[in-house]
Amino acid sequence: MQLEKHPIIDRRHESPEQSVWWHKLTLAQKFSASSLGKFGYELSFVRNVQGSQIAILQCNGGVAAISEDGEINTSPDIKIR
Q: Contact 72/32 with Cβ under 8 angstroms?
């Protein structure tokens, strides 16, 4: 039995490192965002909340937030407009 080969399709139009938001992340956030990227999450935007920088990523309707120190929250209390 021979397995069919399917090409890998990348939905991103640019690499995350070229995103304007990527340059605003801390090193810890970049590491965490790269880890989530393996699961299909894409960096959407960065916000300052109560003096802290939060990175917001999205994947198939799901949302994840990454704190300045790289802590990942895959069920943040945030509404995306």
A: yes
Helices (H) and strands (E) in the chain, counts: 1, 4
Other beta carbons less than 10 A from residue 57's beta carbon: 25
User: Assign residue 7 a region: left if phi > 0, alpha if psi is -120 to 50, beta otherwise?
Assistant: beta
Pairing state of beta strands 72-73 and 42-49? unpaired
pLDDT tens-digit series, residues 17-39:
557 889 999 999 999 999 999 99
CA dihedral 47, 36, 18, 66 (to 10 degrees): 20
Is residue 38, in this structure, part of any structural domain at all?
Answer: yes
Number of domains in the chain: 1
